[in-house]
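WARN no homologs supplied; continuing
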Amino acid sequence: MTTLHCDTEAIGDHHLMNVREATHNDLPDILRLVHALAVYELEPDAVEATEDDFAAVMFPDDGRPNTYGLVAEVEGQIIGIAIWFHSFSTWTGKNGIWLEDLFVDPDHRGDGAGKALLGRLAQICQERGLTRLEWCVLKWNEPSIGFYRSLGAKAQDEWETFRLDGEALDSFAAESAEHESRG
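OK structure emitted
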């Protein structure tokens, strides 16, 4: 467990910020912050995930999770999350971390929670021999882009993110299956 001392300038008090691995008991707060992230990203109705969905991938019955979480808490209140999973680079032959979501409650921004969460992920990379820590950010999210650049992160401007989901994914999968059956 990593405990960081955080000077909360907004109220002038000193608080202990704890960054730790998420537990099953944290799922309500994780989902609350995922919903807050969706609102921040102008997609308030986009979250379909439930606590059960998160439990299935983070705390499965077989004990082999494929998705992980970190939480930042101050005085027992979860104020930030980092949800991540392993990636793989065919160029390095090594795993990395793909950060799916990083979110800090707006009332606690500037208190160091985002930096602490990313710092813990960087430490995990070092401890486990992982070669990359990667994530996406919306192009209009200038505050976050500036924050990431201040940490030394570099934008991968030459890459374009693509996604197949919903009807497009279903249609393409059906088309591929039909092609294989004629094969």
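The two ends are 54 Å apart (CA to CA).
OK
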